[in-house]
Amino acid sequence: MRTFAPFAVFCLSAATAFGATLVEIREPSRVADSFSPKALVRVVNVWATWCVPCVEEMDDLRAISTMFGTRVSLVGVSLDDMIPGDRGAIRQKVQHFLDNKRIQYINIYYRGSSDALADTLRFNGEIPITIIYDRSGREVWRQQGKIDRNKAIAEIRKQLGRNR
Amino acid sequence: MKKLLAVALMFLAVAAIADELAVGAKAPAFALANAVDGKTYAFKPGDGKVSVVFFTCNQCPYAKAFEPRLIEIAKQYQAKGVIFYAIDPNDENIYADETLANMKDRAVSKGYPYPYLKDGDSTIARAYGARVTPHVYVIDPTGTLRYRGYVDDSARPAERTKTGLTDALDSLLSNRPVANTETRAFGCTIKWKKSA
Questions:
Q1: Where are the domains of chain B?
Q2: Spans of all domains in chain A
Q3: Which letter does DSSP use for residue A68 in this model?
Q4: What is the average pLDDT across B178-182?
Q5: Bridge partners, B149 (sequence order)
Q6: Residue of A nearest to B186 (CA)
Q7: Torsion of CA B176, B182, B184, B190, to 10 degrees
Q8: Which of chain B's residues have a Cβ under 8 Å away from the Cβ of A146?
Q9: What three-state secondary structure class fits B34?
Q10: DSSP class of residue A104?
Q11: pLDDT of A12 over the 70 cut
């Protein structure tokens, strides 16, 4: 017990200290700036805390990000700002959600026009949507609706294989 | 590389909205139960009136965000003879919020100035090609679809720059063609009734 207690305190501190990266962006063209330049494959996921299937797929996205490390750059784009209300409080809610989910990939708190974002990413307004790009920026795969984890992993592996 | 990706993303910026009822097509008729009074409301396209059919629900935060705006628009345009139908297409077995009893509670508490109809098997939503809540359709007096898409481009009143629904209504009521006939409806995916 003597040794367990400090260890438990350490684990608790580590759990509460986790801080996900959430950056604010208004221009949809800047979403691409958030990808790691060294990544061989880029993945964008558009989501919101108020979107049930988005929340349901978050664990799968975290697993995919962890599985491939720096070879794959995953960027989440939160549309929570679309709901009227106090921006600070909404952003805090998104931050807490990401912290609790222990999401390590970059997320964007998107404050711009949702229409402009959908134009840029070519989606029809339904979320979640997940899009995979190859190293040159060419779209190679997309999932409208909740992600199929195995299919996404297979596509990423295929793209990584082309970059060997 | 970042610039290349940004250019590639922008280059592909053509929004495809598929499988929705086409603007210019005849609107589907329906007869659905109103959650408030239990009566059946029938929409017969071509009844000589401008009509607004919109899909909404109890559960979706984005649909709820547009609720005050839709109530405001309905009151304003009902005075000009426009008929409004709110339709909940979500499967109540997926969300208990969407039962007739809960629909009635919401409609009464918010003072809906329109019937709140239950599309229990999502048939009417499929016929219109609705994807999300809220999703709006404007039908002219001949029964032809003249506008589909969003209410406005933002649910934040101070940031609203485009007013899709009221623009369409103003055009039809003054016998002008609707300039912007299609916009992109954002919202929560319709919780479709699964076939037995």
A1: 19-189
A2: 20-162
A3: H
A4: 97
A5: B136
A6: A125
A7: 100
A8: none
A9: strand
A10: -
A11: no
Provide the CA B195 distance to its chain's centre, in angstroms. Answer: 23
- Predicted pLDDT at B4: 45
Cis, bond preceding A6 (omega within 30 deg of 0): no
A83:B61 CB<8 A: yes
Give the global pTM: 0.87
A125 interfaces chain B, CB cutoff of 8 Å: yes
Is B164 in a helix, a strand, or coil? helix
Q: Which residue has the higher pLDDT, B193 or B61?
A: B61
Asked if A122 and B12 come within 8 Å (Cβ–Cβ), the reply is yes
Provide CATH code, domain A20-162. Answer: 3.40.30.10
d(CA A80, CA B186): 12
Inter-chain contacts counted by CB atoms under 8 A, chains A and B: 100
What's the one-letter identity of residue A58? M
Confidence of residue A7 (pLDDT cuts 50, 70, 90): very low
The Cα–Cα gap between A126 and B185 comes to 8
Pick the CATH number of B19-189 from 3.90.180.10, 3.40.30.10, 3.30.70.100, 3.40.50.2300: 3.40.30.10
Asked whether the beta carbons of A51 and A127 are under 8 A apart, the reply is yes
- Residue A114: closest CA among A75, A79, A148, A139: A79
Tell whether the model's pLDDT for residue B55 goes beyond 50.
Answer: yes
Of A33, A138, A145, the CB nearest to B8: A138
Residue B88 and residue B117: Cα distance in Å, rounded? 6
Q: Which two structure tokens, joined as six digits, stand for A55?
A: 């929340």
Tokens of A73: 């750059």
Name the phi and psi angles at B149, rounded to 5: 140, -135
